[in-house]
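Notes to self after the Tuesday call (sharing in case useful).
The group wants a holo model before anyone commits to mutagenesis around the pocket. I volunteered. Ligand is nicotinamide-adenine-dinucleotide. Logging inputs and output together so the record is complete.
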Amino acid sequence: MNLAVIGTGYVGLVSGAGFAELGHNVTCVDIDAARIAQLERGEMPIVEPNLPEIVRRHAAHGRMRFTTDLAAAVANAQVVFIAVPTPSNDNGSADLRFVLDGAREIGRAIARYTVVVTKSTVPVGTADRVREAVARETRHPFAVVSNPEFLKEGTALADFLKPARIVVGAEDPRAIAIMRELYRPLMRTSDRMLVMDTRSAELAKYASNAMLATRISFMNELASLAESVGADIDMIRKTVGSDPRIGTKFLFAGCGFGGSCFSKDLRALVHTGREHDVHLTIAQSVYGANERQKHVLGIKVVSHFGGKLAGRRICVWGLSFKPETDDIRDAPALTLIAQLRNAGGAVVAYDPVAIENARLALGEGVEFAHDPYEAATGASALVLVTEWHELRNPDLERLKACMKEHILFDGRNVWSAQDARDAGFTYHGIGRP
Ligand SMILES: NC(=O)c1ccc[n+]([C@@H]2O[C@H](COP(=O)([O-])OP(=O)(O)OC[C@H]3O[C@@H](n4cnc5c(N)ncnc54)[C@H](O)[C@@H]3O)[C@@H](O)[C@H]2O)c1
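Result:
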């Protein structure tokens, strides 16, 4: 099948590569000409495991193309995916400007029956608005489908190719049949496609993200209580997670979740509720709890040093919002670094892949090192924010030798508190005694 994917970010590029892997011909479109030029040179605009190899292979075989010419890509496609950003407006609602601009452009370009699919995370009712936007521009027949994406950055391609479920919200039987055909290679072992109306599909995506965020925030709040009462959140997590009704995933306490999705989607969900006089108090609280949680690590560091960090170097390990990605959107490290700098600290940071993005976001005033131990040299404290594998088992002797003061803040509870103390460090975790 000939497909067009509008937007070549974490979702668009990965989906495009995934569909090419399933045997389809994919034209990836972006308004960012520099990004398209980069892709044409075989360079990736994002860091995602296995993506470069797959994109380069399909580009070489002509199954993936890159262009800024949306009209040509759409005219040639049976199915067009919208995978553009849906950031938060000031009031928390989702900004649909990019989606609706895209829909209008698609409407002007379609040349025959076309399935227009929203892959972006969009509020309930957006499919209707996309339908109106396209209809105003074309006389050709078309259908609108909601096909929200559930991939996780860091394992995005694997998630796309082995999805737990494929949600298709559609009212047009012809469009549903095309979506089935499109995803057929992923259905060999089991039919993972959940077909529903567009409104349910749109809401299902928000519900999934809100549930995952709720689990994390619930454990983060319990971690604060565990700390206050002298209990160990690791044992609480293991106890809770071993109940098969609950399961072990997304129960790790830490310094808050980041990324471009959870916070924005919680706010958009709450806003949708407000528009319909339904007060989503749980989603609202989860958002607030996470905003507070993102400050917990910084508060620990600053109060350890009596409220003042002037004259001290503080080393931060990990900048991306989670391991295996260069995405720093809403990353807890950004909140922490602002706190440390406000208290007068000199921040030196290390991350395996996210330094360039962090430099753009933070500007001057933060020093970056390309080696974790170089970053820690002369530091009064080392703060782990992102649990990259290479940072999970630090060489404590080496740290002891290069740090000025021996204080560790483990924002992800991945280090052994005992080992750290045995090596002569003061250790602070999240919800650990
Ligand atoms: N990142 C994730 O893990 C993830 C997972 C599931 C769903 N989502 C949702 O998918 C959507 C996209 O997220 P993302 O992280 O891929 O965004 P992103 O910022 O990484 O990429 C978006 C791309 O769209 C391009 N773009 C914007 N307007 C355009 C237009 N009119 N025409 C062509 N290109 C345009 C941008 O230049 C950019 O390259 C959002 O709604 C997000 O909530 C994201």
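Two things stood out.
The chain has a mean pLDDT of 97.
The chain is about 45% helix and 15% strand.
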